[in-house]
Design goal:
Length: 218
Amino acid sequence: MISFNPDSQSATSYAHAQNNQVGAGGTIFAYRELGQHGGIPLILLNHWGAVLDNFDPRIVDGLARKHRVIAIDYRGIGLSGGITAVDEMARDTVALIRAMGFDQVDLLSFSLGGFVAQDAALKAPDLVRRLILTGAGPAGGQGIDRVGAMSLPLMLKGLLTLRDPKTYLFFTSTAKGRLAASAFLERLNERKADRDKGPTPRALLRQLKAIKAWGQQR
């Protein structure tokens, strides 16, 4: 089994952080680490379809000035092994954190990551010290089960206009929004070597199923 590399945080920026792997629950998970030794690590859980290259390097670099930051790929996406499991992402996260040898962590999450983080905190409350949720909502939250219906047309618009769909998914249709989107996408492309694998259609659909299930919970 591939083990956690405690010396992997030697890079000075996220764009140059090493791709690492750790085995947990019979699956190999990919991660990148940056920042300080010691203290409570900050685990980053990202949005639907995201891989390691979808974490904004400027945000990660800023967090890493004072924290030990670890960004992960979910099961079945990017460089992680296995098949995306709609009901297992929170269990995977808990198993991954324990495989790294941490007794307590902080979770910083966005969108789908927020659902995973909430479920992980419920499953292992002793493991999570602080829970930071952005762009997320509770199980059964209004409109969450319609994320696919709202997102897929914008993704199609991206294909038709030859723009990255994140231009329409994450930013307003204004001049300032377009400038912000362009700057964001440029940052995501700062890493030139050892980039992560993009999400497969199968992984996207299975994660979307997980989002819909979260939105339909009581």
